[in-house]
Amino acid sequence: MSVGTLYQYFPNKQALLYALLQRHADSVVAEVEDACNSASGASLDVIVDKVVDALIRVKTERVDESKLLYVVAEDLGGSEILAKSSLRMRSAVAGTLAAASDAHFDDHALVAFFFLSALVGPIRNVLERESPSQLIADLPQQLQVLGLAYLQAVRTCP
Residue 23: how many CB atoms within 10 A of its CB? Predict the structure, then answer.
């Protein structure tokens, strides 16, 4: 596609990158929501596996796009997009945690916030840097351990 054709749809480079950020955020949210829907009523280990898998799959599907968007999100004024996406993901995870078969949490929203933060931070850290491929390959297992340990530690009943 030529640059001229692109600018028929986007007035400038910033608008194009903003649209790309929106599309990427929407795809991340959709993956997490799908994972949460499929894990509703499941045990914590299944919930963690599905959420971790969804996040890693969507973030590593197009690693270059993920890296670029981490870098330019602040410059684009993308904080509103990211805040809305984060809220939707937290809502989906909180609902799934409320339906967990083997745990209860006093504050689902709070637990979902810290659970997702604990997962997203390492993913971003790995993707923003030129990480060795083995580190990326180890990411799912490490995040599953991290996520499950956190949820087990904060649950109020077995």
Answer: 13
Q: Read off the pLDDT of residues 23-38 as tens digits, 9 standing for 90 and up.
A: 888 999 999 999 999 9
**Geometric angle at alpha carbon 72, from 68 and 78, rounded to 5°:** 120
Q: Spell out the alpha helix ranges (H) of 62-132.
A: 63-72, 79-98, 108-128
What's the CATH number for 13-154?
Answer: 1.10.357
The C-alpha atoms of residue 31 and residue 15 are separated, in whole angstroms, by 24
Using a cut of 0.90, tell me whether the model's pTM lies above it. no
* Cβ 123 vs Cβ 53: under 8 Å: no
Residues in the chain: 158
Report how far residue 61's alpha carbon sits from residue 38's, in angstroms, rounded to the nearest whole number: 20
